[in-house]
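Format notes (please read before filing issues)

Several people have asked whether sequences and structure tokens are stored in separate files. They are not. Every record keeps both together, in the order shown below: the sequence lines, then the token lines. Line labels are part of the format and must not be stripped during preprocessing.
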Amino acid sequence: MRKERLLAGIGSATSFHYSCFLRHVSCFLVREVIVIKKLLQLAEMAGNRAFLYRMLASLYLREVCVEQLKAMSELDMQGVMKDMGLDLSGEFYQHPVEQVVEELAVEYCRLFIGPGIHFPPYESVYAGEFVAGGGIKGLLWGEAAVEVNRFIRECGLEFDASYRGLPDHLGVELDLMGQLAAWEASAWSEGDAGDARMAVELQSRFMKDHLVKWVPDYCQQLAGAARVPFYREMSLLTKDFIMIDMERIEELLRLDLPEIKDKLSLAAEKSAI
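Then the structure lines:
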């Protein structure tokens, strides 16, 4: 009888330890799943930010082309733009594409190129106190242009061979943020929190040292001068997005996620996650 009790005791202890082990494993797996889900969400958010930065960059760098306008005219894209705050008038979509493209080209030249009072989209021009009324204070290839060029090289990036503009063009600065956000998205998707944080830190530096110092005021003045709804809405969207994204970046820097490599691809295959 004593032997049976002794064996039963061993069995109970083994069962107890096995149950504790399962609970620990279960808690560990739950934590892993939660972190993986969070990383996937961060990757998606960074990818969306990269898309918006690049879209805005293309609209400042050059005149809107027929292909861009046709893409914007699609119902799905109209919904996306409305969600982003780019709510264009119905007339914008009702006129023939060629007519709208021509009107936008004229407005683009009037706003960004001149002649007359215009708004050169270069940080060097608006470095320091913003000059109201479209007056020009700074000079092209100022200190801001040198700093942006240095930062781009620091990030390991180079200009496309076809680009003949200046480093501190608003379109270039937005495209740079889009590239850094894309790097961040790739790192999150691979579970590399270290590389993702590095990309976020670079975004934070560039945002504080450059974008927030001149883009909001510049875009506010641009919106006030725009005669076509497209450029008015685009400039206001740019201003709001920059301010919101600055807060979002600071929130990302406060995250403390462990590194999880080689697990997200497996997690993506499991529909339960």
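For reference, the curators noted about this record: The first helix runs from residue 2 to 61. The chain has a mean pLDDT of 80.
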